[in-house]
C-alpha cells in the first residue's frame, strides 16, 4: 500500500474534453508505491464550457443523418433535449429524448441543437446543420467535379514523371555507351 508517513501531493490530469463533460485522472505525485514518480489514484468527471459549438454527425448519408449529444457513460443518467432551431423564431422542442437522433433530410436545410442536462442544469450543448436534399445533390456534384479535376492533375503529374524518367534512363545509357567506346 501507500506509505502513510510520506505526505501526499495530488495533481490533476487534463480533461478529455474542451467542452461539456469528460473525465480526468487524479495523480499522486509523492507517496507512490515502489519507484513510481506518479501514480493514478482515481478517475473523476470534469467539465468544460457548456457550448460545444457545431458538431459533426456520426453517420451521414444522402438520405439520413445520425447526430449525437454530448455525454459520458452511462448515457441514461442524462436528459437530452433536442431542439429544431428556426431563424427569428423560438426553438421548437422535439419529442426525441435519446442521446442519438436520426433525421432524414427534407428539401431545405434544418439546424438542430441538443442540450445534455443533469439535475435540471445544462452541462453541454451542440448544434448540427442538416443540409437539404437539393443542397446535398449540389455538394455531391461539386465533389465529383473536384475529384475529376484532381484525377486529371494527378494523371498529368504521373505522365510527366514517367516521361522524365524515360529521358533520364536513355541519357544514362548513352553516357555509358560513350564512356565504354572511349575507354
Automatic annotation (TrEMBL):
Keywords: Membrane, Transmembrane, Transmembrane helix
CC annotations in GO: acrosomal membrane
Recorded superkingdom: Eukaryota
Regions that span the bilayer: 157-181
Gene Ontology terms: biological process: acrosome assembly
Keyword Transmembrane in annotation: yes
InterPro entries: SPACA1
Protein name: SACA1 protein
Species the sequence originates in: Heliornis fulica
Amino acid at each position: 500500500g501507500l506509505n502513510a508517513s510520506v505526505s501526499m501531493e495530488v495533481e490533476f490530469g487534463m480533461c478529455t474534453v474542451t467542452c461539456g463533460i469528460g473525465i480526468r485522472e487524479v495523480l499522486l505525485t509523492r507517496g507512490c508505491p515502489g519507484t513510481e514518480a506518479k501514480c493514478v489514484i482515481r478517475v473523476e468527471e470534469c467539465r468544460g464550457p457548456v457550448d460545444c459549438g457545431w458538431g459533426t454527425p456520426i453517420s451521414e448519408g444522402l438520405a439520413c443523418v445520425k447526430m449525437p449529444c454530448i455525454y459520458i457513460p452511462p448515457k441514461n443518467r442524462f436528459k437530452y433535449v433536442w431542439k429544431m432551431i428556426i431563424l427569428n423564431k423560438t426553438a421548437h422542442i422535439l419529442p426525441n429524448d435519446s442521446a442519438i437522433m436520426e433525421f432524414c433530410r427534407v428539401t431545405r436545410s434544418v439546424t438542430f441543437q441538443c442540450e445534455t442536462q443533469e439535475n435540471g442544469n445544462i452541462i453541454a450543448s451542440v448544434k448540427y446543420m442538416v443540409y437539404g436534399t437539393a443542397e446535398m445533390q449540389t455538394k455531391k456534384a461539386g465533389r465529383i467535379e473536384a475529384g475529376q479535376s484532381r484525377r486529371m492533375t494527378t494523371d498529368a503529374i504521373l505522365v510527366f514523371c514517367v516521361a522524365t524518367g524515360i529521358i533520364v534512363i536513355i541519357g544514362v545509357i548513352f553516357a555509358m555507351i560513350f564512356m565504354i567506346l572511349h575507354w
